[in-house]
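Sequence in, structure out. Go.
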Amino acid sequence: MNIYISGLSYNINDADLNELFTEYGEVSSARVINDRETGRSRGFGFVEMPNEQDGQKAIDELNGAEYDSKVISVSVARPRTERPSFGGNRNRSNNGGFRRNNGFGGDNGGFGRY
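Output:
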């Protein structure tokens, strides 16, 4: 079970998160997400627990709990959705985002008769 934890103190690291969840069962991995540029914690992380029942018990008991002077939110992690590689929903085809036909005629790139 993949678990999402938010509201973490910026002082928390992977080992702290692992230790917190080990109280509820086996932890496969524990990771605090850090900012790429600063290396500072972004205040959330993920824990993977192989046993669903242990994971659910951890969620039930830790959601809304205070940890390192902050109230944390703990839930089942949603699957990651794919983001467009160039951001937004812009047309990134080989023609520079310019639609072929543009409503101006046949297969000549849109520069036919007006």
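Check: The two ends are 59 Å apart (CA to CA). The helical segments are 14-22, 52-62.
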